[in-house]
Input
Amino acid sequence: MNTSTAAIPKLTIKVVFLGESAVGKSSIVLRFVSDDFTESREPTIGAAFLTKRTTRDGNTIKFEIWDTAGQERFAPLAPMYYRNAQAAVVVFDITNEHSFHKAEDWVKELHEKAGNDIVIALVANKMDLLNVQGTILDEAVNEEEVDSFCQREGLLYFKASAKTGENIHEIFQTVGEKIPYSKQSPRRGSDHDLTITDDQRIDLQSTTVEGTKETGGCNC
Amino acid sequence: MTSIEDLISSPPLLLHSSLSQLRYLILSEGLPISEDKQQQRTRCYVWTVLSQTSMEASTQRYLSLLKLGQPSTTIYQKIKNDTSRTFQTDPNFRNRVSEDALIRCLSCFAWQTEQRRQNPRFSHIPVSTYVQGMNVLLAPLLYSCPSEPMAYQLFTKLCYEIIPTYLTKNLNGAQNGAKLLDIALRIIDPKLSKFLSDNLLTAEIYGMPSILTLSSCNKPLDQVIKLWDFMFAYGFHMNILFVVAFLVKMRSKVFKSDSPVNLLRQFPDFDADEIIRLGVGFIAKIPTQIYDLMVDHLTDPDIYIP
Output
């Protein structure tokens, strides 16, 4: 077991992004990581990984973000990313009711399979579209329904827009505050858990992993 | 006229030997990348000949599928969700291929797939009506073919016959591809393979996009087209070895990086000739049994990978 590097308390938080295709997961991550936005992002295939450092009370917090693909065919890969995550951000598109129901499903799956400690934030993205005057959105999500869902499930809830940047930093800030320093060492679980330790190593605790941990030793 | 044009301009005397000759010409001379319409036409003909795709009545068939209109709302929504985001950052692509063309082809494919489902002959591998990734596979075809029906015909060949296991609802085929990528890398570059697995980076994490899209998610698109020239000639299983080549090309950067996972998120711009040269060189190192699995995993969902 390698739970090394425990000497310096620096908080590393692993966050996984989940949600229906095209709700703006990658855009939220991009806004947070590089304060950028582009209308035409290509759909994520599999998952993307990004990191961002921020500070809390003078301490460094490192976010390690797994941005997963939304379409259902990639759902079998999702457990590999959310197991051992300290936080999950479930995103839906405020103008698309179907995407909210998908979000409900993700929350349910997280409660069942990701363990009780995981912090879950629900994010209604694309709020900027609601603020356009005179637009009538037939498929817009009923916000009362969202509120009662969040209360029932004990979720953090944010109304955000990756496009305008509204509330994006608040998502990560609040999630960061919810995670105590003591929880930084990843929980060890079943096979195929994916964690990244402090020195940026992904630890996929899997039965297929073989050999020792040291690198080097030229084989070429 | 180039020797390739010369060869495909008349019917072959002996199919097999003419095909081998054409394959060899692709390897030795290659097709030029060009904006020229005639060149585009040649490329499409070559792909058609190599994959033995019949273009007979292709326009008629395409038109009759188009007449069916939009597929069901769920499918149509999924398609639209992705077409508006397909290669939008590539100005060359946007100039040549409209979003409407992508939507039309994918809609026709959804209809044809539903029709095929009624036929028990095709039921052994249930190719999906639409799944994410199809848009990225269709893009190079629309980009390279002079007409939409021809691109569509090649697309159906690719999906139904060449890589059906990659297009089922679950990801079994692509997951098998990832396993084979892990194995191939271990054989070809044990040091890099060990470094990645010590960092617990498996092919399932970094290789999925390139596997599932036959490398068409990598840039630039004109170099993707050249990789496809080669794969139409010698088989799309070569894609696994090309991904190994991508990795080997960037190995020194990977070793130095304090975050290999970030580095492997998007492969750097590549030169197809270099990737092909490397990939072909790897074949000799791959045991026959593994090589056969590479060939089979594209069409057989039930293979066992040791």
Summary: Residues 1-30 of chain B form one domain. Chain B touches chain A through 41 residues (CB under 8 Å).
